[in-house]
Amino acid sequence: MKKIICLWSCPRNISTALMYSFRSREDTTVFDEPLYAHYLVKSGLQHPGRHETLRTMENIGE
């Protein structure tokens, strides 16, 4: 059975721990910060990894 889980948690270190635990499963795909590329486009932020992020991630914000 295929399931999609969207997960946010606080504090941030808990969400990172959950991300790594899910990523260790062979039947699971994890997307970290899926809206970050869209944020970079809309904000114009000149982040050091901006070009790599925009090259490798969708940024349509949907």
The SSE order reads HHH
Strand segment tally: 0
Gross morphology: globular
Measured on Cα atoms, how large is the radius of gyration? Answer: 14 Å
Number of helices: 3
Q: What distance lies between the first and last C-alpha atoms, to the nearest angstrom?
A: 25 Å
Range of strand content: under 5%
Q: Which structural class is indicated by helix and strand composition?
A: mainly alpha
Largest sheet: none
Poorly predicted sequence stretches spanning 5 or more consecutive residues: none
Q: How much helix, percentage-wise, in residues?
A: 40-55%
**Average of per-residue pLDDT values:** 88
Task: Compose a concise summary of this entry.
The chain is mainly alpha-helical. Helices cover 44% and strands 0% of the residues.
Highlighted features:
62 residues, mainly alpha
Structural write-up:
This protein has helices spanning 12-23, 36-43, 50-56. It is mostly helical. The longest helix has 12 residues, at 12-23. It is globular, with a radius of gyration of 14 Å.
List the helices and strands and how they pair.
Layout (H helix, E strand, L loop, with lengths): L11 H12 L12 H8 L6 H7 L6
